[in-house]
Write a structure and sequence with these properties.
Length: 963
């Protein structure tokens, strides 16, 4: 029997990164990086493991891959291929050179709709292929939940499956041919091999001939062993696909290589098969009393031509409810504590509905049910399922859950029994887990609250994994049903297969890679499943308590940095807000995941040195826009804007700061001075001295300075009569810095609108500020003093029952949420946070008194902080009440993002963010279309980059009242 003890260490006599860098210099058209920051970024994937690579290569073409392979072979350095880095079993991190194919080798070479084939490079993202195939009514059948960022190379490496595997199978079932490179530099095309062709290949005297002879011998000697030993299971992903070499499979070498996890050959390209997709789809959601009842009914559903049969648990839904109570999916579930999402298709909506009704009739009274045909509703439900691996990592009570025993599969008819026994196993080990997944194929995902922080916990982790493997094998299952074996499960293959099969796996690997250079430790001669555990081998070694409260992580950056489990939703290039800097640069270090991994490594200090003074972390965070998109879009709620503020606070403590921290961090102070001579200030800032002022202030030379209003809102208010509404509600309008000094007309419109709605409007008697500009630049002590002073000044009116109405979303969100991070124990700050409302939240409940009909149209850009912190339902209702037909853009961040877009060195990224969706949409709008943007940054970016003059919701409400 082969065990981990026989594994030959790949790090023995390991060369230094500089030696490999020198060898690669001059032989690559692509890039190679060997700096500590890059090595830290690629030291893990979406698994529990950490292996620090020597360096990372970004090949531009196949010749770069061959050149890298030659250098690796000469120096005995292992090679690990990587796509999106979302491998959950540790398959995409290794100790040698990592080849990142996603950066350049990402072209779709051909889509042939007649033959239903597509030819792709390994770095092609699945959604890109789906978009290219969609106009032809085709798709690539396998569709993992990471479809927006996973690559075809990674899917082929892991033999990925996805939601629709009950209809369209695993990746192995959809591969036609592969273009691969062996570790000795041999390049060949693998596919189905008829016997006559196989004989001809075996007759060759070269390396290709030796390979095929070895594989034919393996097939002939092990055919019956493979037939007898491989479980009869649609979701068997564990081990090598030796069954694909059998005569009945046509000696399909491409499919035998699928699922080898980069351990046999390096993928250079692939031709994959496409499937016809139904014109319309419907979803029937079935509600059950518990997961066992749902699992017991799966076999009843499998004969009904379902496209997908997916399971959700009550624990998963509870996490969604706690993190996002407004999620539309929650209202779409029927009664129950466990649900099956069953998707069916048809030629039209009625046909799809009829298919759903057949499912309903088959279930009868065994389940509550509801049918959905609206794509938006179905999409909301699929979102819960797709983000399950993130949601299930942090539970509603804050506890941490981990992968490991992630995706085992059993025959569907055994699923109910397996789940009952698996829950009993969890109880025996004193562990808790959240199960969900591909019920239709018997594949269950689970995140378990393993203790991976201590040596004793790691030992118990091993015991659990071995017991769970024995359980799944007893049910005729596979230890992996989707994500591959990797380091997490390769060692368990000896419990699933007899020793003779393990020996045949080793023969298969040796035929391709006799020197064990390609992703060693995967599948054969495995690395121990309890070694290289990231949390155990890289613990924090510097103080991790934070100045900010970090309520979600009890004031500790260590668990905060562990929130990211590597699933990479921040690598999405469309939809939502996260992560604008990554979308602009496509650099891992500029993703939320990359920054979280660097913070984790900073706390450990073995690779990223200098602690809070780390230049690598500072560089990665420099292009973070502090948009807070990740706080909502990331399934585990990573809040990089808050972590950045904390880092900057420590990094520059007792040090001279960048000039922009003084010019823009202290912006409220400078504007308070400029209000005495705004015309002079504008003349200076817009005149000949402007370039010098920008240079001294750390401001981008390309940026036009915004003009200060001739009269501030507070000045206008001081010289205006303040009519009291008899019996009307008093309301306190918060005069934020941006509205007060740059766009006071918005404040005036808001005051007039509120007064016409019967309110007595008040403004603070003294200047107030939330402290946002100081906080975003890491000047937390000053920010805390500012917000506490403001809260103290406003407390009497808050105690009198006045709501505090904010007009600027960033300031409103700061008062309601971030202020509590700065001063959590200050009762005045808590009272201010509780009293703060958006303008829309205040006026929307009264809309029946003032709503108007109209035919006006508008594009709406949500401010990122409103998206992340405040919600937008009230705004949409208020917009509709003004008679405006509003289209809310899913355009991400505007790119200006407060001080970010003004800082020197940020202009190009700032504009690239805006040009992704927002600015083109504004330019393409029909004449007369209003552009609504409540955020000052959003308005300024639109003003400076287009001909449009954006408006605030308050202005539209006033206009509606004027009408």
């Amino acid at each position: 029997m082969t065990t981990a003890a026989h594994h030959r260490p790949t790090t023995a006599n390991r060369p230094e990164p500089a030696e490999i860098a020198a060898a690669l210099r001059g032989v690559l058209d692509g890039r190679a990086r060997f700096d500590p920051g890059t090595r830290a970024l690629y030291s893990t994937d979406a698994s529990n493991y950490r292996q620090v690579p020597l360096g990372v290569v970004y090949p531009r073409h196949a010749d770069d891959v061959a050149a890298t392979m030659a250098v690796a072979r000469e120096h005995g350095v292992p090679i690990t291929g990587r796509g999106a880095g979302t491998s959950i079993a540790g398959n995409a991190c290794g100790p040698g050179l990592v080849l990142d194919f996603s950066r350049y080798l990402n072209r779709i070479l051909e889509v042939d709709p007649e033959r239903k084939l597509a030819t792709v490079e390994p770095g092609v993202v699945l959604d890109s292929l789906q978009a290219a195939a969609k106009p032809h009514g085709l798709a690539f059948g396998p569709d993992p939940s990471t479809h927006s960022r996973c690559t075809l190379g990674g899917m082929i490496g892991n033999n990925s499956c996805g939601t629709h595997s009950v209809a369209w199978g695993k990746t192995v079932d959809n591969v036609r041919s592969l273009d691969v490179l062996l570790s000795d530099g041999t390049r060949l095309t693998a596919g189905a091999t008829p016997e006559a062709e196989l004989d001809a290949l075996c007759a060759r005297g070269d390396r290709t001939g030796r390979l095929y002879r070895s594989l034919r011998d393996l097939r002939d000697s092990s055919a019956q062993l493979v037939r007898d030993s491989f479980p009869d299971l649609t979701r068997r992903v564990s081990g090598y696909n030796l069954d694909q070499l059998l005569p009945e499979q046509g000696f399909h070498l491409a499919r035998a290589l699928t699922g080898t996890e980069g351990s046999c050959a390096v993928l250079l390209g692939a031709t994959v098969e496409l499937v016809d997709v139904p014109a319309c789809r419907a979803m029937i959601v079935l509600g059950f009393d518990d997961s066992y009842a749902a699992a017991d009914q799966v076999t009843r559903l499998r004969g009904l031509d379902a496209l997908a049969i997916e399971g959700l648990s009550s624990e998963l839904v509870d996490v969604v409810r706690s993190r996002n109570p407004a999620s539309p999916a929650l209202r779409l579930l029927p009664d129950g504590r466990s649900w099956l999402l069953v998707e069916v298709g048809g030629t039209d909506v009625r046909d799809a509905e009829n298919a759903a009704e057949r499912v309903r009739r088959a279930m009868g009274s065994r389940a509550e049910s509801v049918v959905h045909t609206d794509p938006a509703r179905m999409g909301a439900l699929w979102k819960i399922r797709e983000e399950g691996s993130g949601y299930s990592t942090r539970m509603a009570d804050g506890s941490e859950r981990w992968s490991g025993w992630e995706d085992a599969a059993v025959p569907p008819e055994r699923l109910g029994a397996y789940l009952r026994e698996f829950d009993a196993l969890l109880a025996r080990f004193g562990r808790k887990g959240v199960t969900y997944g591909h019920y239709g194929d018997g594949c269950i995902h689970v995140r378990v609250d393993f203790d991976l922080l201590t040596g004793g916990g790691a030992a118990r982790y091993r015991e659990f994994m071995e017991a769970a493997a024995d359980l799944v094998v007893a049910h005729g299952g596979s230890v992996s049903g989707e994500h591959g074996d990797g380091q997490a499960r390769s060692e368990l293959l000896a419990r699933m297969y007899p020793p003779e099969v393990i020996g045949e796996f080793e023969r298969f690997k040796a035929a391709f890679d006799p020197d064990d250079l390609l992703n060693p430790g995967q599948i054969v001669r495995p690395r121990p499943l309890d070694s290289d555990l990231r949390l155990l081998v890289a613990p924090p070694r510097i103080p991790t308590r934070t100045t900010l409260a970090l309520h979600a992580d009890d004031g500790d950056l260590a668990p905060a940095s562990r929130r990211c489990v590597g699933m990479g939703k921040c690598l999405n290039t469309t939809g939502g807000v996260m992560c604008p800097s990554y979308r602009a640069t496509r650099e891992e270090k500029h993703s939320t995941r990359g920054r979280a991994h660097l913070l984790f490594e900073m706390l450990n200090g073995s690779l990223i040195r200098g602690g809070w003074r780390s230049p690598e972390v500072r560089e990665a965070l420099d292009l973070c826009l502090s948009c807070k998109g990740c706080k909502t879009d990331c399934p585990v709620g990573v809040d990089m804007a808050t972590y950045k503020a904390e880092f900057l606070h420590h990094h520059y403590r007792h040090r001279v700061r960048p000039a922009s921290h003084y010019s823009m961090g202290f912006l409220p102070l400078w504007l308070a001075l400029a209000r005495f001579a705004p015309a002079l200030a504008n003349a200076v800032l817009g005149g000949r001295a402007a370039p010098l002022i920008k240079r001294l202030g750390g401001i981008a030379a390309e940026r036009e300075m915004p003009r200060i209003a001739g009269r501030s809102l507070r000045s206008w208010w001081a010289h205006r009569e303040h009519p009291a509404a008899p019996g009307g509600q008093r309301a306190l309008l918060f005069p934020d810095t941006f509205t007060d000094h740059f766009d006071p007309h918005i404040g005036r419109d808001a005051i007039v609108a509120l007064e016409r709605l019967g309110h007595t409007v008040e403004l603070p008697r003294e200047p107030v500020c939330c402290g946002l500009t100081w906080a975003s630049t890491g000047q937390l002590g000053t920010a805390r003093r500012v917000v506490r002073r403001t809260a103290r000044l406003l407390r009497p009116r808050i105690d009198a029952g006045l709501p505090v109405i904010g007009l600027e979303p960033s300031c409103t969100a700061f008062l309601r949420n971030d202020a509590l991070e700065l001063a959590p124990d200050d009762p005045d700050v808590r009272a201010l946070a509780a009293a703060t409302k958006t303008f829309a939240e205040h006026v929307e409940p009264t809309r029946e008194r003032w709503q108007r009909s109209g035919d006006g149209k508008a594009l709406v850009q949500r401010h990122c902080h409103q998206y992340a912190e405040l919600g937008f339902d009230a705004d949409e209702a208020a917009l509709a009440a003004t008679g405006t037909d509003a289209r809310v853009l899913d355009a991400g961040c505007c790119g200006l993002a407060g001080n970010f877009g003004f800082e020197r060195g940020h202009y190009d990224v700032s504009m690239a963010c805006g040009e992704q969706a927002l600015l083109p949409a504004v330019r393409a709008a029909d004449p007369g279309t209003a552009v609504v943007a409540d955020g000052f940054s959003c308005r300024l970016q639109i003003r400076q980059a287009t001909e449009a003059e954006p408006v605030h919701l308050a202005t539209l409400v006033r206009r509606a009242l004027d009408a």
